[in-house]
Amino acid sequence: MEIVAYMANGQSHAFSQQDPDAARTLLADMQPGRLFGTSSIILGSGTSCAFLKTAAVSRIDVITDEPVAIAPTIRDSARVLESEEEFALRAKAATKALGDGVAPGEAYQGYLRFELTGGHFLLVELERVLAQQVQFFTNLHRLFDGQAMMFPHPRGGAVFLNVTNIVSVLASPGFAEYPKGTLLAERH
Q1: What is the pLDDT of residues 96-148, one digit of tens each?
Q2: Per-chain mean pLDDT for the chain
């Protein structure tokens, strides 16, 4: 198991756990709310210990072959992309296909770029049917009200985002309708 903690100051810290029993125990303790619900995260062993201030952690990747419990709605419809080039090509194609934005009732592939403190980011591809336009923004607001978000890691395991350290979320393509109060403008 590999663990990488991405920090708000732009640095990252790498850890590993080779013992399968210890890895399963560690995974059981890594629930999103529990992980980011305290003031600190301690990762340690007999040779070293890291005491991380939770508010300074932007993202934690846990790469493992062990099964990780991820909500079915996320697991079945969201994929993390590791290549910025692949993400950009797919987002551009989706935007071109839906030039006027995603409309209610329309099935689409959407691309979300979560920009995090420290210059870190997470690239996510979603497959959805947009039931109601307002529902997308309502769901996004609910996510920001929580402590953490969790996505399946493309190499196995999970990516945990500390919601506090999300700077912005960029969506491609955009939408045909926006809630009242939106500042309508083209992004360059």
Answers
A1: 988 888 888 888 888 999 999 999 999 999 888 877 666 777 777 777 787 88
A2: 88
**Per residue in 134-150, pLDDT tens?**
677 777 777 778 788 89
What is the rounded CA–CA span in Å between residue 101 and residue 176? 4
Closest CA to 108 of 150, 77, 151, 81: 77
The CA-CA-CA angle for residues 72, 74, 79, to 5°, reads: 125
Neighbours of 65 (CB within 10 A): 11
- Would the CA dihedral through 140, 143, 144, 149 be positive or negative? negative
Instruction: State how far the Cα of 114 lies from the Cα of 119, in Å rounded to an integer.
Output: 10
Q: What is the reported pLDDT for 73?
A: 64
- Pairwise CA distance, residues 55 & 164, whole Å: 7
Sign of CA dihedral 13, 11, 125, 90: negative
The helix or strand, by DSSP H or E, that contains position 11, with its residue range, turns out to be none
Q: H helices of the chain, where?
A: 20-29, 32-36, 72-75, 84-97, 133-145
Task: Evaluate the omega torsion of the peptide bond into residue 179 and state whether it is cis, within 30 degrees of 0.
Answer: no
